[in-house]
Specification:
Blueprint: E1 3-8, H1 12-23, E2 27-33, H2 37-47, E3 50-52, H3 55-61, E4 66-69, H4 81-89, E5 93-96, H5 104-116, E6 121-123, H6 131-141, E7 148-157, H7 177-182, H8 184-194, E8 197-205, H9 208-212, E9 220-227, E10 232-239, E11 250-256, E12 259-264, E13 269-274, E14 285-288, H10 297-310, H11 322-340, H12 358-362
Parallel strand pairs: 1-2, 1-4, 2-3, 4-5, 5-6, 7-10
Antiparallel strand pairs: 7-11, 8-9, 9-10, 11-12, 12-13, 13-14
The chain binds nicotinamide-adenine-dinucleotide.
Amino acid sequence: MKLKIGLVGMGGIGNVHAAAYMKDELAELVAVCDVRKERVDAATEKYGVRGYESLEQMLANEDLDIVDVTTSGYENGSWHFEPTMEALEAGKHVLCEKPLSNNIEECREMVRVAAKKKLYLGCNLNHYFSETSRLAKQLMADDKIGETVYALFKTGFDGGEFTYGGKGSARFQQAYGHMKAFLTHPFSVMRHFCGDITHIQSFSTKPGFRKNKGDLLLSVNSVHVRFADDTVGYLLSQRGDAMWGLGGWWSFEVAGSKGTFCIENCVEKLTYWGAPTKDGKPEPVVTNTGITNFEQTFPDRIHAFLEDVTNKVHPEHIRASGRDALATMEYIFAVIDSYEQGGELVRPHALPAAHGDPVVERI
Ligand SMILES: NC(=O)c1ccc[n+]([C@@H]2O[C@H](COP(=O)([O-])OP(=O)(O)OC[C@H]3O[C@@H](n4cnc5c(N)ncnc54)[C@H](O)[C@@H]3O)[C@@H](O)[C@H]2O)c1
């Protein structure tokens, strides 16, 4: 049976989600809502669904399985908490856009309430829902990487002083706007492959052309990390201050005792270098996926959430869960903490324990 979906927030990304639901055999998009009437009208006409100007009205009139929250707000996350909590309180499963919230206490509360109510809370950590990531994970599962030695993530929005348009919208006119809105993606990929991060040390800055305009955004973030298994790692992120270099929009290299992989341009290319053995040094294996459009990660991630809910996967085991998203926010707040202390080493706040379910354990 198809899952009934109600979407909250019909901006650009709400429409990307709507298009994904319209094509997914596990979903039926039944309603949308937005506080802006013209966006409701445009969406009801486009998708042939019912429309509302508040989530309260939508919940009162529709029998939904999942509420998908694609609102935005300050640092792209300050409008996520209220609709998510309203939907959870109404007993609905929630898929929330990233960041879970721009406020860490709210992130913790969202995860706590979903767990208490035994409801699914997923987050659109879409960047590792790709063929490149699937193949790279397989290399690790096949023991082609061995013991991991280091992990390097480099990401940036193409740009430079000529394309810089001056201070951004109020949404991003806070020092930590880029960190809170965006670093959830690279941290989610790093954690997906290398596990929990236990130590963080960061420097953040911005180029002169931003400084001269009084731009508050700390758009360049240099973050040194240590993972729980002792792997060391590095994340470099910038927001339209320089051109992409090697690896395109983002690249991620994980090196191990038996081999190294590098994903280039998120969805586009995977290279594997096997370490030398008694038989010599193998040739690198390059996989070009033929995919360059990152938007394919949206339907793939949304389908994974629909599969997990349909299959009644234990809430602690769904892919890209609220807890996974909370982990990335704990790291971001550790990055901020380290920056505020002049680059001190910081240990991210602990995650809530994954308790396990005695019924599941017994099976
Ligand atoms: N996962 C990704 O790759 C990715 C990429 C870009 C953006 N995003 C995320 O997607 C989200 C949406 O981004 P966007 O650019 O579409 O934002 P947007 O501001 O264009 O759209 C948000 C919409 O939500 C509506 N809204 C706000 N509060 C509401 C409420 N309480 N009830 C109903 N409607 C409400 C607004 O009126 C607006 O139409 C952001 O959180 C952003 O971080 C994710």
